[in-house]
Write a structure and sequence with these properties.
Number of helices: 12
Distance between the termini: 110 Å
Structural class: alpha+beta
Helix content: 40-55%
Strand content: 5-15%
Radius of gyration: 30 Å
Largest sheet: 5 strands, antiparallel
Shape: elongated
Strand order of the largest sheet: 4-3-2-1-5
Number of strands: 11
Order of helices and strands: EEEEEHHHEEEEEHHHHEHHHHH
């Protein structure tokens, strides 16, 4: 069989040591392998160099077609000229084996990680192992330039930086390190180029509407709240495995369902996969040791409560089928059916844009770019402020429990010692002063205790709030890069139309689909800003009220002590 040749449509910059082949527009390549998988082919250029390149970046010589978008991530196990099975194949084998062995857990028909197992040390955000001492603010340190690859950073190449141990108690930010690959592989390029076809029911449609603040998500369904209560230690396999179960109760039916942490974790993953332009807030972190201690259970429950409350306030995510299934399904068989349905949802990632309806008015490219650029700067500045704020407040917590407490107790000790000395004077006229001095010492000791306890009431809740925003903010740079890449492809298609290589009707349709992506991003930006204004207003008000109450308690103690000297 003759070797097949392809023509390169777009430049592709290879990453050193990755097995990729750099290619340039209009270059001819000879295909050597098509079975590499996950959207990659192997080929040879005119210089005899062999390597991988994105299938979507080339076209076969005897065929023509619209340009494609970004490359998918490399198969993680590809090395040189050998091909090994990747994680996906192993997962499929594992799933098949699980099906043959039968279910050990009424809720679980997949090999989920247990939040209660010692081996359960993995965060769904990036797949990295998490230990009791893992840093909570792990961030991607990938500094490679985006190049011409739609801002795409290949999977499994991220590095993580450490952070201070004091931050552990506030949980790990869960990020999706696969947002690009999810967008591409699930139909992003097919949507933009109009090759994705699906029937969207009215129930699946999501609206973006105009408002005085710009594009916003339309309301869909009645607003509701949800509570997470009644943590209870339960067991399975005759007590071999134990876990904490919570009662989750939505306000629209007031019927509680039992959920474990891993059910929340599964939902978090499904929401990240489905909503390409929505930064799903992070879950509170898993914990291996001390997970049954009362303080940890209460803190995790509070974190889960905050998480579901934020999801309930999102007009799109709150009304998704997968979230409704999570909140309402109490039947084992229906849970499994709904879980499988959610995992086979056709409107995930890039295909989610098929469900979005927008205003008919086309968006001006410069207006969109200015809005997104301004928000990108805002995100960077706020992220820096949040990071610095967390550090300062953590230091303040330590000072309250250490130096501040000790200083007041030292002062109290001085007055106590003076009172003990004065007690040697047994004259009745001196006894009142002696008791007043001892009371002053006791008061300062109590004030020291108040300082040690106060962070629970003001600093820690505020840190929790801004830490959650750190997790949300960390998703926006990737979302913005996806949007930039989509706009770049729209411009490329417009250039092709100007050069007569693409019909005008096709270019107009691609531009309109690009507008849908832009409308979705602008709507999400507005939702984020509205949430931020409300959240920080309430959080700061609570912080200040607690501060006022704290110092009022100190004033009351000092005034009470002062009155002891009236009769001295």
């Amino acid at each position: 069989m003759a070797e097949k040749q392809v023509r390169v449509l777009y430049d592709f910059d290879a990453q050193p040591g990755s097995g990729e082949l750099p290619v340039h527009t209009d270059e001819l390549l000879t295909i050597t392998r098509r079975d590499v998988g996950e959207g990659w082919w192997e080929g040879r250029n005119s210089r005899g160099e062999v390597g991988l390149f994105p299938q979507a970046y080339v076209e076969e010589i005897q065929e023509t077609g619209p340009p494609a978008m970004p490359p998918p991530p490399l198969p993680s196990t590809y090395v040189g000229d050998t091909e090994e099975r990747g994680d996906q194949g192993r997962r499929q084998e594992s799933d098949a084996a699980q099906g043959q062995q039968g279910d050990g857990d009424d809720w679980d028909d997949d090999d989920w990680d247990d939040d209660d197992d010692v081996d359960s040390q993995y965060s769904s955000g990036g797949g990295a192992a998490m230990s009791p001492t893992s840093p909570p603010y792990a961030r991607s340190q990938d500094t490679r330039p985006a190049g011409g690859n739609f801002g795409l950073h290949l999977a499994n190449r991220d590095q993580r930086s450490a952070s201070s141990a004091e931050q552990q108690k506030f949980g790990t930010m869960k990020r999706s390190f696969n947002r690009f690959s999810t967008f591409v592989k699930s139909g992003g390029e097919a949507y933009l180029l109009g090759t994705a076809k699906a029937v969207v029911s009215d129930a699946d449609k999501v609206a973006v509407v105009d408002s005085e603040d710009g594009p916003v998500w339309g309301t869909h369904g009645q607003p509701f709240t949800c509570s997470v209560t009644s943590p209870k230690k339960e067991a399975k396999f005759h007590g071999i495995k134990s876990f904490i179960a919570y009662q989750v109760t939505p306000s629209f039916n007031m019927t509680p369902v039992t959920r474990r942490y891993k059910h929340f974790d599964w939902l978090h993953g499904r929401l990240e996969d489905k909503f390409a332009m929505i930064p799903v807030p992070p879950l509170p972190d898993k914990q291996v040791t001390g997970r049954y201690e009362e303080e940890f259970i209460e803190k995790r429950m509070a974190g889960l409560q905050g998480w579901v409350s934020r999801i309930c306030r999102h007009p799109v995510v709150a009304n998704s089928d997968v979230y409704n299934h999570f909140l309402t399904c109490a039947d084992e068989k229906r849970w499994k059916q709904g879980k499988r349905k959610a995992e086979k949802d056709e409107f995930v990632g890039g295909s989610f844009f098929l469900t979005i309806t927008t205003p008919e008015q086309p968006l001006q490219v410069k207006f969109v770019q200015d809005q997104v650029e301004a928000f990108s700067k805002f995100v960077k500045t706020m992220d820096d402020g949040v990071r610095d704020g967390v550090q300062v407040m953590l230091e303040s917590c330590k000072k309250h429990r250490g130096p501040y407490k000790r200083e007041y107790q030292k002062n109290g000790h001085v007055f106590q010692e003076l009172g003990n000395a004065f007690s040697l004077d047994t004259r009745p006229s001196a006894m009142h002063l002696t008791e007043a001095m001892k009371h002053t010492g006791k008061t300062y000791d109590e004030i020291g205790q108040l300082f040690a306890q106060q962070p629970r009431a003001d600093l820690e809740p505020f840190i929790e709030e801004i830490h959650e925003y750190k997790g949300i903010l960390s998703n926006f740079p990737e979302i913005i890069e996806v949007h930039k890449g989509a706009l770049k492809r729209v411009k490329d298609c417009q250039k092709k139309e100007g050069a007569g290589k693409l019909q005008e009707s096709e270019a107009v349709a691609i531009s309109a689909r690009g507008d849908v992506i832009s409308y979705a991003l602008l709507a999400e930006i507005n939702h984020f800003q509205q949430e931020r204004v409300t959240d920080f207003k309430l959080s700061t008000q609570k912080y200040l009220r607690e501060q006022i109450a704290f110092y009022q308690r100190i004033v009351q103690k000092l005034e009470g002590t002062l009155s002891q000297y009236d009769d001295a």
